[in-house]
Amino acid sequence: MKILSPLLSSGYKLVVENIVVEVEQWLSRLKSLPSIQQTTVDKHEQVFQMYTGDYLGDCDYLWAESERERLRRLWLHHAQQLSEFYIRNESYNAAIKVQEKVQELYADAEDNYFTLMKLYELLSNSAAVEEQYWLLKKMLQEHLAVELSEEVEVWYRRWKQANAIIQVDAFN
Fold first, then answer.
1. Does pLDDT of 172 surpass 50?
2. Fewer CB atoms near the end CB (10 Å): N or C, the chain?
């Protein structure tokens, strides 16, 4: 890498050679992915795991915000496709891992909590369903000052009611 200043009054020029830019590498791999199938899911998983957070996430550069948002949306879209593939193939634990990473990086994505609630229900993990419900409720109140959506509330009430019936049957 060299910094050149041909004319002192005209500014500087940064010349970079043989530099690997992680974001460009990630974008290139994402764009070259084949459709998700059993034979290609490992490649998708690798590209999904390459993303470790927002572009220049440690820096509060206003000029980087649009690129940060674009890359985040691309990753979230890919995460959704990967999760849906796992769900269609009944690989619920793999789908949970995808959703947990999404939640770790973007804690204010309401759909993520709801998806996790439904996945945990499929695995009969009542404690995890409850935990996701309360985490969602807390996040919405603290970060966004809103209540749960009607869809989530209705689903949760039905799930609680069905769970209560199962518990009663177990004691009879």
1. no
2. C
